[in-house]
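Each letter names a residue; C-alpha cells follow underneath. Both lines appear below:
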Amino acid sequence: MRTSRAPWQLVAMVVLVALSGCGGSGGDAGGPTPTPVATPTAAPTPSASPSPFVIVAGVAGDTFPEVAFAADRYLATFSQPGPGGGRDVYGVRFASSSGVLDAEPLLLSDLDPGVSDLAGASYEGSSVAGGAGFGVFFAGYGSLSDSGVPAQVVGFSSVPPSGPPIRPATLVDSQISFSMVQTSITGVTAATGSGQRSTGLYGRGTTAAFQPIFIGQVDGADVLAGDGAVTVDDTYVLGAGGVVDGVLHSAGNGSIASAGPIQLAVWFDAAIDTSRPAPPMVRTITLAGAQRTPAGVIPLTLADVPDEPGGTAVGSDGAAFLVAWSVATVSTNPPNEIRALRYRAGDDGAPGSVDPPGGFLVADGPSAKTVVGVAHAAGTWLVAWLDEGILHGARIPADGTTVAPFTIFPDNVNAAALTTDGARFLVVAEHPTEPSIDLIGFFVPAAD
C-alpha cells in the first residue's frame, strides 16, 4: 500500500513511535550480510517513451494506483473520495486490444458495516494480484461505531476478469488502534498462487509502539464460480515487533511475491538497543524477509541497510525472485539509491541463496527515489522507480546484473505501479492534469 508520505518517512516514523512504549514479542532473523560499496551507474537516458493511454480521467486527490494481470485482462485499482465521505478503493478492468471494459469504476472496498463495525471508514490504498481472477487487498481506518475508539481493518475483494458479480468485500483482519499514527496500514500488498488463493502482507500495530508483519490467506475459489462467500483461511505472524534480548524491533514497508508454491515476503526491520540511553540512539536496519512454503516459514536477513531506508518491491519469474529497495547513502538525505538482489529458495523448502550479498546498484544520484515495482517478462527483469516526478526503469537480464536504465515517462508523475503479462510490462501512473488527476497507462516492451 502507498500513502501520501514518502516511504522513507514512514519507516522513520515507525522507529520513532517505537520509542514510546515497550512489550510484545519478536524474532531474530539471523546475521546481516555486508553491503558492497556502490559503484556509479549511468543516469537513465532518454528513450522513445511509450505512448500513454488514459484509464480513468478526472480522479480526485491522491489515487495510490495498483495494477495486475489475469486471464488476458488488467485490473487497475485506485483510491478516491467515496459516497460515505471518506475514501474508497475502486477498480477498472481493461484489455490491451479493446480498452476499458467497465463503464464506471467498480467500488471494491464495500465492507458490510455490521461486519466491520467501523464508522467513518476511509480506505487510502490497495494492492491487487491476478491469477484466473483478481484478488484485491485494501486497508482502512475509522472509529468503532459504538464507542468512537480508533480502529483499523484489512479487507479483501475478489473480482472476475469480466462481468459480474462484484461481491461485498470480506474482512480479513481488524484491530483497535492504540495510536493515531497509522503505521499499521502502510504495507498492504498481495500475491496469487494458482489463481484462486490470495495472500495479503501487511503491518499490524498491536500496541502504540510495534508493527509486526502479518500475513492473511484468503480462499477465492468462488471468484469464477459465481456463488458462495470468499472466506479467510488464516492470519498469522511472519515477523514480530517488540523487545527481544533488550532490542526493540519494528517493521514496515513490505512486499510479497510468489514463485509456484514458494512465497517471499520482504520488509525493513528497525532494531533499537533499549539498554543504551538516548541520545545517542543506536539503531540497526536490515532488509528482512520470510520464505513461505508448504513446509513452513523460514525467517531471512537479506541485506544490511547502511542508512535511511525507503520502499521495497519484489517480483518473480516463476522460479526465482528479484528484490529491489531504496536507501539513503547519506543520513541527512532521503533514499537516493536503488539496489537489487536475486533470491532463490533452497530445495525442499530450505533457506535460499542471495545473489550478490548486499545487492547490486540499479540507480544512484543525489535526488530522492521511490521504488515503483519489479516484474519479469520474456527473460528480462524491469525495475521501475520515480525520481523527482520522472518515471524511470532499468532492464536487467535474467542471467546477469547488467543494468540498462532508461526514461519511461518524462512528465510529472505522483505515483505508479507495475505488472506484466509475461511478454511485456504495463505501468499505471497517477498524472496530474489540473485541476484533477488522470490515471494513465504505458505498455513497455521487454527489449529496447
Q: What stands out?
A: Residues 7-445 form a domain with the Methylamine Dehydrogenase; Chain H fold (CATH 2.130.10.10). The longest strand covers residues 118-130. The two ends are 30 Å apart (CA to CA). The helical segments are 7-18, 113-116.
